[in-house]
Design a protein that fits this description.
InterPro entries: HDC-like (IPR049576). The chain contains 19 helices and no strands. The longest helix has 39 residues. It is globular. Helix content is 77%, strand content 0%. It has one domain. By secondary structure, it is an all-alpha fold. 48% of the residues are buried.
Length: 396
């Protein structure tokens, strides 16, 4: 397909998805609408190369570290330290997945399928690949496909759950904001762009390219450090995405980088379009026959995973004094991770707010929490879980 045709189709679908998200107050997220459309469209014959043909897929993959640096500029060390409750809620959600999916699921779908399913449900691509490789080595080809499909379709469960839960939390925030009872963020957490930016230039010289160059340099440094450390130790010790987020925080706190540089570069919109294409790209591998064969196991394990997430998130919310709806949204991040943890809070804040001030009040109280939660579940905990469960599967 011609790149311009593919691009046009994608942005039209995303635009309609955003309209639906706003009209439904983000109960039906844009990610859910876009995922459902392309899954059905691929089955009906839409070329599965459409996402790659648009050239947005490669662009989105390249932009991930840049977007994480961008996000990091809206956070600071005090905020990160204040997220310890979010980390514990996310870990509790992972424990809930293991207990329910493996503990109960083994009696419904069999122990091998339950062991393969838990890590992908708790995280994403890396955990799914790891469990799929073990299953393939054991001659369990169908379980290898199961691991891949869970990575692809778990967002259909995670997006609406997180969107609904965060909408509840956002409505509470907006109501308190309008009543003047919203507790302010700490002074350090709410301070933006205090002090002169080091190496700054005259306002007339600050082009879009200037801001893009600065954020790209920070992102490139994060990728370089991650790659260099990996070459030395032999494994991915410092994930480039985690470093990009951290470097964004550091660069802003050190007054090297402005807050929200992509907005200042007028590039945030196209960056988010490209990033969303990366999210839904896994749907290109789903076929009708495979979906029908594994559908019962997929549905059962995902339902069990959701039950585990909700139960443990609610318990953790009570223990660690976190709002229940925020805790459920945090737990649900295991079902999609970044960049869904970046996009859905943005959708929700847009849907429930009537002014830029309300939108910002909501966003700063849900997006950093979701981003941290996504890294805990997808980038860290699920990979650790796969490392624990894969030897158990191999020993069966």
């Amino acid at each position: 397909m011609q790149p311009i045709y593919a691009f046009t189709l994608i942005v039209v679908v995303f635009a309609l998805g955003n309209i639906i998200a706003v009209k439904t107050r983000s109960i039906v997220s844009m990610l859910f609408t876009a995922s459902a459309f392309f899954l059905i469209a691929f089955i009906l014959g839409l070329p599965r190369t459409v996402l790659a043909d648009s050239t947005l897929l490669d662009m989105g993959a390249m932009l991930i570290p840049i977007l994480l640096v961008h996000m990091g500029t809206s956070m600071n060390f005090k905020q990160l330290l204040e997220q310890w409750r979010v980390v514990l809620v996310a870990i509790a959600a992972i424990i809930g997945i293991v207990v329910v999916v493996v503990g109960l699921g083994q009696f419904l779908v069999g122990l091998p399928a339950a062991l393969v399913a838990a890590p992908p449900i708790a995280g994403g691509v890396i955990a799914g690949i790891q469990m799929g490789e073990v299953a393939a080595n054991l001659g369990m080809a169908e379980l290898q496909i199961l691991a891949s499909l869970l990575v692809v379709v778990q967002g259909f469960f995670g997006y609406p759950i997180a969107s609904f839960a965060l909408k509840k939390e956002a409505n509470r925030i907006v109501e308190e904001y309008r009543q003047g009872t919203l507790a302010p963020l700490s002074e350090a957490a709410s301070r933006k762009d205090s002090g002169k930016i080091i190496g700054d230039v005259h306002e007339d010289l600050k082009s879009d390219e200037w801001y893009l160059a600065k954020v790209a340099l920070v992102a490139a440094l994060a990728v370089f450090v991650s790659s260099a450390v990996q070459q030395v130790v032999g494994f991915n010790l410092l994930d480039k995405n985690i470093l990009a987020l951290l470097f964004g925080v550091l660069a802003h706190q050190a007054h090297l980088l402005e807050a929200a540089p992509l907005n200042k570069a007028n590039s945030y919109g196209i960056a988010m379009v490209a990033l969303t294409v990366v999210v839904i790209s896994g749907l290109t591998g789903a076929t009708v026959d495979v979906l029908i064969q594994l559908l019962p196991i997929i549905v059962i394990t995902l339902i069990l995973g959701v039950i585990g997430i909700v139960l443990m998130s609610v318990i953790a919310a009570k223990v660690f004094k976190v709002d229940i709806w925020l805790a459920i949204g945090v737990g649900a991040s295991a079902l999609f991770g970044f960049p869904g943890t970046f996009i859905i809070p943005t959708e929700v804040s847009n849907a429930v707010s009537q002014s830029a001030e309300e939108r910002q009040a909501v966003l700063v109280r849900i997006q950093p929490q979701m981003l941290v939660a996504g890294f805990v579940t997808v980038s860290i905990a699920s990979v650790v879980l796969a490392g624990i469960l894969s030897p158990i599967l191999a020993g069966l």
